[in-house]
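I am writing to request your help with a piece of structural work I have in hand. Here, with my thanks, is the record as I have it:
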Amino acid sequence: MTDDAAGESERSDEDSRHSAYYEQIRSLAADARAERRRFEAPSDATAEERALSYVRGGVAPVTGIYVEGHTGGEHTRFSQTELDLLHRALNDWLSLYARCYGVAVDPDATVRTAAEILLQTHDARAVARLLTDAPPRR
């Protein structure tokens, strides 16, 4: 077996062994993708509330899963599929958050960076603000 074939086999094996968080991660990623497809800009009166709902319903849970998996009782080894889904979900939720403020961004933040910000600030909204620069400063 070649090194490439061995590497492919190892990745396939890793992806087939998802953590206990898999269904939750998959659900958050699917919800974020669906929300992006149906997004309609909120009115100025509801923008803040909608942005906060994306923090509470998306950014916080995605980041929280990662933090809990790495700081909980046992260290969770996320599969590559789970890490990819967490990455995509985080960035989808961040994009939705920013769009509420009229900011079009396509973030590429890592979940690890988001987790580090969360651990420093204890504020999921600060995570969204720092990673999107939204709302714009006036």
